[in-house]
Predict the structure.
Amino acid sequence: METFSDRLAVVEERIEGACGRAGRAREAVRLVAVSKKHPPEQVQEAFEAGQLLFGENRVQEAQQKIPLCPPGIRWHMIGHLQGNKARLAVQLFEMIHSIDSLKLLRDVDRHAADQMKNIGVLLEVNVSGESVKHGMSPGEVEGVLNEATGLMHVDVLGLMTMPPYCEDPEKVRVYFRQLRELRDACRAATGFPLEELSMGMSHDFEVAIEEGATYIRVGTDLFGGR
Ligand SMILES: *Cc1c(COP(=O)(O)O)cnc(C)c1O
């Protein structure tokens, strides 16, 4: 039977290939192992294979799972976050990739202040304009960044996106590129370094790396189907 280590090795090779093509250092890309819908035992196996960074997309599932997993793991929230779960998300996660409104950013800041901590966040941008997707519009990002200068407990580290699913990953390259270009423009306009770009999933992460991803979020190709 194929183990997590086997699948990790294949993903690792694909990451290295994409970094090579793009002339980027392997260390510039971090792999978030998306463990949603998979039990703690599989997280344990992944951890033993050397994977330390994991992503979950639902606060409640993470709340159940995290206490059953090895304590050395770093957890990132990657899914849509409702305001009423923000307090718990700040408790559970080291970073939130999915800040999709100024209101949510303010809620997260307030809860982080209450918990006397700082939390890294990414702004989720709906670059494709698909109505089913979460995320702020590209035009909103600069204004949110300007407001974020007044928030002392969130560190806005970059941008995240989820393009539409396309069989051919080349078709979504344009969205990854748009996210990077938006980042460059917002960096110039606001002075936020915005070093992180969270983009790319199992079937399209190589294209995302070629376009500048610093975090890729991979579930299926590491853990199998859900
Ligand atoms: C599930 C999920 C992923 C991983 O998707 P795979 O196709 O299984 O690699 C990445 N990002 C988000 C936000 C997700 O919800």
The mean pLDDT is 97. Strands lie at 30-34, 53-56, 74-77, 95-99, 119-124, 154-160, 196-198, 215-218. Residues 4-223 form a domain with the TIM Barrel fold (CATH 3.20.20.10). The radius of gyration is 17 Å.
